[in-house]
Amino acid sequence: MGRSPCCSKVGLRRGPWSEKEDALLTDYINRNGEGQWRSLPKNAGLLRCGKSCRLRWMNYLRPGIKRGNIGEDEEDLIVHLHGLLGNRWSLIAGRLPGRTDNEIKNYWNTHIVKKLQSSGIHLRPHSGFPRPPLPPPAKEPPQVKRSKKRQRKSPPEKEDDEQGPPRTVVHRPKPIRISAPAPSLPRLNSWDSYPSVGSSDAD
């Protein structure tokens, strides 16, 4: 149920790009714009994978990419941003105009990590955040035993100035339930309330 591969990779070229391939890719993107990377190789006449075309354009051929070595100011900024953002290379590249996320990631792994480790800064696993080396463990001073019984602290008394005028206290009586026996009523049989059968009034 996953996403289908971008191409069959059968009969496609691998390895370094030639100048002719770079020219074909650049001309096609200048005419049609970026995007549609799956169909781009076939439309541009390239025997490359769509992902390979996208990475070649984004990391090497795109106009505005800054060439040359990374300077000390950029390196300091990379270390600072990596301490804040971690391995989020695209966000770091957004703060360094002209540099790609791939270039910054490669520079971090090949140059900066070795430089930090040689200066005694160890990197945390997984996150890569620099941290200072741990100091040697110091001996703890002996702890003073305290008595188990703790005296309860009485609440501090309020001063007369803070109390203000005296308050009037109203006491309400508590409700009391009175349980008196219910008056007993004479029980009547159902036949007593009716005149007897066959009897008639003398009047």
Helix-strand sequence = HHHHHHEEH
- SS content category: mainly alpha
In whole angstroms, the N-to-C terminal distance is 105 Å
CATH fold group of the domain at 72-131: Arc Repressor Mutant, subunit A
The radius of gyration is 45 Å
Q: How much of the residues is beta strand, in percent?
A: under 5%
Largest sheet: 2 strands, antiparallel
The assigned CATH architecture of the domain at 72-131 is Orthogonal Bundle
Strand order of the largest sheet: 1-2
**Segments where pLDDT lies below 50 for 5+ residues?**
none
| Assigned CATH superfamily of the domain at 72-131 | Homeodomain-like
Q: CATH class of the domain at 72-131, anyone?
A: Mainly Alpha
In terms of quaternary structure, the protein is single chain
Counting DSSP E segments of at least 2 residues, the number of strands comes to 2
- Helical segment count: 7
- Could you report the average pLDDT, rounded to the nearest whole number? 75
Shape assignment: elongated
Helix share bin: 25-40%
Region (Disordered): 122-203
Biased composition (Pro residues): 130-140
Domain HTH myb-type: 9-61, 62-116
Biased composition (Polar residues): 190-203
Q: Could you characterize what this model shows?
A:
The chain has 203 residues and is mainly alpha-helical. Among the domains are: 19-61, Arc Repressor Mutant, subunit A, CATH 1.10.10; 72-131, Orthogonal Bundle (Arc Repressor Mutant, subunit A), CATH 1.10.10. The chain contains seven helices and two strands; from the N terminus they run ααααααββα. It has helices spanning 19-32, 40-44, 50-61, 72-85, 89-94, 101-118, 160-163, and strands at residues 122-123, 130-131. A hairpin with a 6-residue loop joins strand 1 (122-123) and strand 2. The chain is elongated and about 105 Å long.
